[in-house]
Predict the structure.
Amino acid sequence: MNIRLKNGVTVLFRMLSPRPARCMLQSNWQNEKKL
């Protein structure tokens, strides 16, 4: 189920706006790394 949810989210992000989605993912990863 988790895999399906992740796939659906990635597809939605790609359809809506692939570039901003990647930026958001990178920023979230950086924030987690800092914390």
Observations:
- The mean pLDDT is 72.
- The first helix runs from residue 2 to 16.
- The helical segments are 2-16, 18-34.
- The CA atoms of residues 12 and 18 lie 9 Å apart.
